[in-house]
Amino acid sequence: MSANSASRDEIAAALKTAGVTSSQRWAAEVVEYRPYAGGDQDLTKLRHNLAKYNPGQATVDKIVSALRP
Q1: Which helix (H) or strand (E) holds 8?
Q2: What is the DSSP letter of 29?
């Protein structure tokens, strides 16, 4: 799922499928911090911004695993 072009609902569905709790909330954060660099497959910018909310490494990893730039 593209973190740059997918809708908030599409991202939330992908996050839910990946096992992320509160997928709607995290999808809103993904959308808020757009755009992401196309070559950054690890979504470093997103990881950095999500860390502000102390979601835990496992949650961040699940979020990133469901997305691409």
Answers
A1: helix 8-17
A2: H
How does the average pLDDT of the chain come out, rounded? Answer: 97
| pLDDT (tens digit per residue) in 19-37 | 999 999 999 999 999 999 9
Query: Model-level pTM greater than 0.90?
Result: yes
DSSP code string of 9-25: HHHHHHHHHTT-TTHHH
Report how far apart, in Å, the C-alpha atoms of 21 and of each of 11, 15, 17 are. 13, 8, 10
Q: What is the dihedral of CA 2, 15, 66, 35, to 10 degrees?
A: 30
